[in-house]
Write a structure and sequence with these properties.
Length: 99
Protein backbone atom coordinates (compact mmCIF):
# COMPACT_ATOMS: atom_id res chain seq x y z
CA UNK A 1 0.00 0.00 0.00
CA UNK A 2 2.95 2.38 0.52
CA UNK A 3 3.59 2.36 -3.23
CA UNK A 4 0.03 3.10 -4.29
CA UNK A 5 -1.23 6.62 -4.92
CA UNK A 6 -3.94 7.78 -2.56
CA UNK A 7 -7.14 9.64 -3.24
CA UNK A 8 -8.77 12.35 -1.18
CA UNK A 9 -12.49 13.03 -1.46
CA UNK A 10 -13.37 16.72 -1.05
CA UNK A 11 -17.04 16.33 -0.21
CA UNK A 12 -17.52 19.43 1.97
CA UNK A 13 -16.11 22.94 2.20
CA UNK A 14 -14.50 22.02 5.51
CA UNK A 15 -12.39 19.29 3.87
CA UNK A 16 -10.48 21.81 1.74
CA UNK A 17 -8.39 23.01 4.67
CA UNK A 18 -8.01 21.89 8.24
CA UNK A 19 -5.94 19.34 10.13
CA UNK A 20 -6.80 16.41 7.83
CA UNK A 21 -8.08 18.35 4.83
CA UNK A 22 -6.85 18.54 1.29
CA UNK A 23 -4.25 21.15 2.22
CA UNK A 24 -2.67 18.68 4.68
CA UNK A 25 -2.47 15.98 1.98
CA UNK A 26 -1.03 18.36 -0.61
CA UNK A 27 1.65 19.54 1.83
CA UNK A 28 2.47 15.95 2.70
CA UNK A 29 2.77 14.91 -0.95
CA UNK A 30 4.89 17.97 -1.76
CA UNK A 31 7.27 17.21 1.11
CA UNK A 32 8.29 13.83 -0.34
CA UNK A 33 11.59 13.47 -2.14
CA UNK A 34 9.90 11.50 -4.92
CA UNK A 35 6.98 13.19 -6.67
CA UNK A 36 3.65 11.89 -5.41
CA UNK A 37 0.34 11.46 -7.16
CA UNK A 38 -2.68 12.60 -5.19
CA UNK A 39 -6.04 11.93 -6.77
CA UNK A 40 -8.78 14.31 -5.70
CA UNK A 41 -12.49 13.61 -5.85
CA UNK A 42 -14.50 16.84 -6.08
CA UNK A 43 -18.13 16.78 -5.03
CA UNK A 44 -20.57 19.15 -3.31
CA UNK A 45 -22.66 20.00 -6.37
CA UNK A 46 -25.77 22.00 -5.47
CA UNK A 47 -28.73 19.80 -4.54
CA UNK A 48 -26.71 16.66 -5.28
CA UNK A 49 -28.02 13.94 -3.01
CA UNK A 50 -29.00 11.04 -5.28
CA UNK A 51 -32.54 11.24 -3.86
CA UNK A 52 -31.28 9.49 -0.71
CA UNK A 53 -31.08 12.61 1.47
CA UNK A 54 -27.95 11.08 3.01
CA UNK A 55 -24.92 12.45 1.18
CA UNK A 56 -22.56 15.14 2.38
CA UNK A 57 -23.67 17.65 -0.25
CA UNK A 58 -24.15 20.95 1.58
CA UNK A 59 -24.95 23.48 -1.14
CA UNK A 60 -28.57 23.96 -2.11
CA UNK A 61 -30.38 25.48 -5.05
CA UNK A 62 -33.16 26.52 -2.69
CA UNK A 63 -32.95 26.53 1.09
CA UNK A 64 -35.73 25.75 3.54
CA UNK A 65 -36.23 28.24 6.41
CA UNK A 66 -34.21 25.91 8.70
CA UNK A 67 -31.20 25.99 6.34
CA UNK A 68 -31.67 22.51 4.87
CA UNK A 69 -32.01 21.94 1.13
CA UNK A 70 -35.40 22.10 -0.48
CA UNK A 71 -34.82 19.33 -3.02
CA UNK A 72 -38.28 19.77 -4.51
CA UNK A 73 -37.98 23.52 -5.08
CA UNK A 74 -37.87 24.37 -8.75
CA UNK A 75 -35.85 27.00 -10.52
CA UNK A 76 -32.55 27.19 -12.33
CA UNK A 77 -30.23 26.92 -9.31
CA UNK A 78 -28.33 30.11 -10.23
CA UNK A 79 -27.79 31.02 -6.56
CA UNK A 80 -26.56 27.48 -5.80
CA UNK A 81 -24.11 27.62 -8.70
CA UNK A 82 -22.74 30.97 -7.48
CA UNK A 83 -22.33 29.57 -3.96
CA UNK A 84 -20.64 26.44 -5.39
CA UNK A 85 -18.21 28.57 -7.43
CA UNK A 86 -17.34 31.16 -4.80
CA UNK A 87 -17.27 29.07 -1.61
CA UNK A 88 -16.07 25.72 -2.92
CA UNK A 89 -14.42 25.78 -6.37
CA UNK A 90 -12.56 29.10 -5.98
CA UNK A 91 -10.96 28.08 -2.65
CA UNK A 92 -10.01 24.71 -4.19
CA UNK A 93 -8.45 26.44 -7.17
CA UNK A 94 -6.51 28.85 -4.95
CA UNK A 95 -5.15 25.98 -2.87
CA UNK A 96 -4.24 23.81 -5.86
CA UNK A 97 -2.49 26.76 -7.54
CA UNK A 98 -0.02 26.79 -4.63
CA UNK A 99 1.14 23.29 -5.56
Amino acid sequence: INNVASAFYVDKKSTIQGPNGLEYHLKDAASKETKQLLMIGIYNLPNRDCSAFASAGEICCTYNPDGTCNFLGGGNCAAGIVEYQTTYIDPLYELLAQY
